[in-house]
Amino acid sequence: MKLYVGRKKTAKAVVAVRSGSGIMSINNCPINKTFFNDISIRNIIEDSINITSSRKLYNFKVKVSGGGLLAQAQAISFALAKFLINLSLAHKPILKKLGFLKSDARIKERKKTGKPKARKSFQFSKR
């Protein structure tokens, strides 16, 4: 069993992979019983595995925390893409072309003192 990590904003996903029958569980719940009920979010998670036809060969156990639903789904997808590359380098050009290997390092900018938000200023009065 090997662990693969994916991150997006403040979301972090750790994927443990074992040979098996294609069962995926997220935070100890089957994927169809988790809060990833939206088809588009579930497609983000499952697309990389389905494209490479690796779904039925392995069991995936995912621990995900932080961020929102979309950020968590993208973190899981990135971790699964790392697994597929480690499995076979032949998958790398396919996954890269489809954008599964792009990591996005943008995070929320911190709030500065004397301002209401990170860059917003209070209203300025000339008189």
Automatic annotation (TrEMBL):
InterPro entries, per database record: Ribosomal_Su5_D2-typ_SF, Ribosomal_uS9, Ribosomal_uS9_bac/plastid, Ribsml_uS5_D2-typ_fold_subgr
SUPFAM superfamilies attached to this UniProt entry: Ribosomal protein S5 domain 2-like (SSF54211)
GO BP: translation
Entry GO terms, CC: cytoplasm; small ribosomal subunit
Keyword Nuclease: no
Family affiliation: Belongs to the universal ribosomal protein uS9 family.
UniProt name for this protein: Small ribosomal subunit protein uS9
Species whose genome carries this gene: Candidatus Pinguicoccus supinus
Top-level taxonomy: Bacteria, Pseudomonadati, Verrucomicrobiota, Candidatus Pinguicoccus
